[in-house]
Design goal:
Helices cover about 0% and strands about 50% of the residues. It has no helices and 11 strands. It has strands at about 5, 10-15, 20-25, 30-35, 45-50, 55, 65-70, 75-80, 90-95, 115, 120-124. The relative contact order is 0.32. It has about 120 residues and is an all-beta fold. The chain is globular.
Length: about 120
């Protein structure tokens, strides 16, 4: 199974920017990010499908966050701009080695590799 390891979390002021990084140990077809706000279920943030470069975003981050990466390096990034207190959460990198289309890419059930999470705290 492919392992994914994320980094880059930390403390950021409201309105500021932060970039998360994630490296996979092997080939993936899709990589992305979920987050979990304390006391709530994990929610989809963004994903990128390497073939074609299609990107997907949650409505709450669209226009503020940008996902990008390098398929050859099995690396994905999440550029977070204009962060607010609502973005405080643990962020999890995810990877998918084979997509059969059973679950939407916005569903946690679609992914077979999960990182340990990196904490992002937005201060006001």
């Amino acid at each position: 199974q492919v392992q994914v390891v994320e980094s880059g979390g930390g403390l950021v002021q409201a309105g500021g920017s932060l970039r998360l990084s994630c490296v996979a140990s092997g080939r993936t077809v899709v990589m992305g990010w979920f987050r979990q706000i304390s006391g709530k279920e994990r929610e989809f943030v963004a994903a990128i499908k390497w073939s074609g470069g299609n990107t997907y975003y949650a409505g709450s981050v669209k226009g503020r966050f940008a996902i990008s990466g390098d398929n050859a390096k099995n690396t994905v990034y999440l550029q977070m701009n204009g962060v607010g207190s609502e973005d405080t959460a643990d962020y999890y990198c995810v990877g998918l080695t084979f997509y059969n289309g059973v679950y939407a890419l916005t569903s946690a059930l679609a992914y077979d590799s999960w990182g340990q999470g990196t904490q992002v705290t937005v201060s006001s």
